[in-house]
Specification:
Layout: H1 8-20, H2 34-51, E1 59-63, H3 72-77, E2 95-97, H4 119-129, E3 133-138, E4 142-143, E5 149-150, H5 153-166, E6 169-173, E7 197-199
Parallel strand pairs: 1-2, 1-3, 3-6, 6-7
Antiparallel strand pairs: 4-5
Helix pairs in contact: 4-5
Length: 213
């Protein structure tokens, strides 16, 4: 976090990132790591609505099986687990929606005929809470710590459509999946979906310290 200062390498990196990020993303905010990137994205979503005169939009919708980091806000939007239980008094409540899990379908359906019915839960949650929701946060294509759950392509396209329908922002957490780890530069490119905010971190350097590049 530069606190209003800058320097040439930071500007150069930001410009290179903007050149390769999904369409529509034209600003870069530096933080410390993946967890704080998610925290910053959530704060930006909340501040966006406050700046637009809708300060009641403070809720975040997150998915089951999610993992977004170990800081307090990132734990809040992650699935509750034995790793977060000790810190539950510190976390904030989120709206939780079903994630696609074709191997263990929460609805007991078969992928060939399911029609991506699991997305109906997100639709229902947004219908109920849309006026107070700032953003939906997802790990596009692959939920890693949740069990290496690979999504059907239609689910993420449906998330984008539901966010548009209900007027909420979409945060794509690509800390795990960004920079070629799924076969494309960003996982979201498999679905030709444009997020409103994207988080990247260790994936910029493949998880290696800069001295190893």
């Amino acid at each position: 976090m530069f606190a209003g200062c800058t320097h040439e390498p930071a500007v150069a990196l930001a410009e290179r990132l903007i050149d390769i990020l999904p369409r529509g993303l034209s600003r870069v905010f530096y933080s410390d790591n993946g967890s704080t990137a998610v925290e910053a994205a959530v704060k930006m979503a909340v501040q966006y609505w406050r700046n637009r005169g809708q300060a009641q939009r403070t809720r975040v919708v997150a998915l089951h099986h999610a993992y977004h980091g170990d800081t307090v806000g990132a734990m809040s939007v992650s699935e509750e687990s034995i790793f977060t239980a000790a810190f539950s008094p510190l976390t904030f409540p989120v709206v939780r929606a079903a994630a696609p899990h074709c191997y263990r379908c929460p609805l007991g359906l078969e992928r060939a005929t399911c029609g991506i019915a699991c997305s109906d839960d997100l639709d229902a949650q947004l219908r109920q809470h849309a006026d107070t929701v700032a953003a939906v946060v997802v790990e596009p294509m692959l939920q890693g710590a949740g069990g290496m759950i690979v999504w059907p392509a239609e689910f993420l396209s449906g998330v984008r459509a539901l966010c548009d329908r209900h007027g909420v922002l979409l945060i794509a957490d690509e800390v795990l999946t960004g920079f070629g780890r799924t076969g494309r530069l960003f996982a979201i490119e498999h679905y030709d979906v444009e997020p409103d905010l994207i988080t990247v971190a260790k994936s910029i350097a493949a998880g290696l310290p800069r001295s190893s590049l």
